[in-house]
Design brief:
Blueprint: E1 29-30, H1 42-51, H2 64-74, E2 81-84, H3 87-99, E3 105-109, H4 115-121, E4 126-130, H5 139-144, E5 150-156, H6 168-176, E6 183-187, H7 203-208, E7 212-217, E8 230-233, H8 236-245, H9 253-264, H10 266-289, E9 293-294, E10 301-305, H11 324-333, E11 336-337, E12 339-340, E13 349-353, H12 357-370
Parallel strand pairs: 1-11, 3-4, 3-5, 5-6, 6-7
Antiparallel strand pairs: 2-8, 7-8, 9-10, 10-13, 12-13
Helix pairs in contact: 1-9, 2-9, 3-4, 3-8, 10-12
Bound molecules: pyridoxal-5'-phosphate.
Pyridoxal-5'-phosphate is lined by residues 34, 87-89, 113, 156, 160, 187, 189, 217, 219-220, 225, 230.
Length: 373
């Protein structure tokens, strides 16, 4: 007889990360995990190396220097910030661990970050997927699925993998339809990239409402995916829960110093945003010219939809050759790794991270060749 995990755990499909290499292909460019082509701030790397001198000592347990740096940059009370040394993924998981019971219902969009489903099932709670045929979080469809059992709503804003977002106004409308004992978790992993006047990353929402939590990461704009640092700005009662259940030394000294230096380097962040804006526009325009559908994205990636045999009708016979799977294989043969998103319910699409100038130009040239243009 084998040991039996909690109900739901064995319904989890293990997370599949974006590929990092291709057998037999040289000069590989990884555009599969939304990492920053600019890398981290040199100041963060310097701080990391300095912090590596006292490895025999336990780190300060509350990540104080990092919470203070975040608080300075965003004007937040450091007491309302909790940091994770295993990315914002671990914060999302801790929120689910701290608040979900068997039978609770958890809402999230059909094409959204897979971790929400994993964290829900791991706590024997019930996932309720919100249809999003327009590849955009649908507030009305979400509110139509709220029941007395709804305990948590996850929303990635901007969304991964679609690149879409909802406005502050829509977020407030969503919140207004939830009961005070339902937690609204706003996952703002890509918020630094957004350049829209009607967008709000979540700080305003958390400051105003006692049941809203915002999560952030150092993995994307700060170019520190390998360091695994995430944080949350949350109501005091939620910080209290997280501080009880997190590991007592869950953020290493290297993470604390590197993170603090990274977030204080605003010039580096601005360079990343400017690079992203320029090349996202280039990629969107150039790939659309090839006859492919590219979602309007506010993040550091674009979703490319390919014509495939399953999307019959409007798509001509000759295009049925141009499937996402064939494109993925063709790009791979050129050393370009994109992210297949079939696991996100989007078998016709590939997600492309905005890369370096050279990488972006290589992708467009390869897609042009693939489409026979
Ligand atoms: C990348 C990403 C994260 C960040 O994960 P980390 O664990 O902090 O690296 C969180 N949410 C979404 C939607 C993401 O795409």
């Amino acid at each position: 007889m084998t040991l039996t995990p909690k109900p739901g755990v064995l319904d989890i499909t293990p997370y599949v990360a974006g590929r990092a290499g291709l057998a037999g292909v040289e000069h590989v460019v990884k555009l599969s995990s939304n990492e920053s082509p600019l890398g981290p701030s040199p100041l963060a790397v310097e701080a990391l190396l300095k912090a590596a001198h006292d490895l025999e000592l336990y780190p300060e347990g509350s990540a104080q220097i990092l919470r203070e740096a975040i608080g300075d940059v965003y004007g937040l009370d450091p007491a309302r910030i909790v940091v994770s040394g295993d990315g914002s993924d671990a914060i999302l998981t801790m929120l689910a661990n701290g608040y979900l019971r068997p039978g609770d219902e958890v809402l999230y969009s059909e094409h959204d970050f897979i971790l929400y489903k994993i964290a829900t099932l791991a706590n024997s709670a019930t996932p309720v997927e919100i249809p999003d045929p327009k590849l955009r979080f649908d507030v009305d469809a979400a509110l139509a699925r709220v029941t007395p059992k709804t305990r948590m709503v996850f929303i990635a804003n901007p969304n991964n993998p679609t690149g879409s977002y909802i406005s502050h106004e829509e977020m407030r409308r969503l919140h207004a339809g939830l009961s005070p004992d339902t937690m609204l978790v706003i996952d703002s992993a890509y918020s630094e990239y957004v350049r829209k006047n009607d967008y709000e990353a979540g700080i305003e929402m958390v400051s105003r409402y006692p049941n809203v939590v915002m999560t952030r990461t150092f993995s994307k704009i700060h170019g520190l995916a390998g360091m695994r640092i995430g944080w949350t700005y949350a109501p005091a009662s939620v910080c209290d829960v997280l501080n009880r259940i997190r590991g007592p030394f869950n953020v290493s000294m290297m993470q604390q110093y590197a993170g603090a230096a990274a977030i204080r380097d605003r010039a580096h962040v601005e360079r990343s945003v400017a690079h992203n804006e320029q090349w996202k526009t280039y990629l969107t325009d150039e790939i659309r010219k090839l006859g492919l559908t590219v979602n309007e994205s506010v993040a550091n990636f674009v979703l490319i939809q390919f014509p495939s045999p399953s999307s019959s009708g409007a798509v001509g016979q000759k295009n049925s050759e141009k499937s996402s799977a064939k494109a993925d294989a063709f790009l791979g043969s050129k050393g370009l790794i994109l992210r297949g998103v079939a696991g996100y319910g989007l078998p016709d699409a590939l997600r492309l991270t905005i890369g370096s100038a050279e990488a972006n130009e290589r992708v467009v040239a390869a897609l042009r060749e693939f489409m026979g243009r």
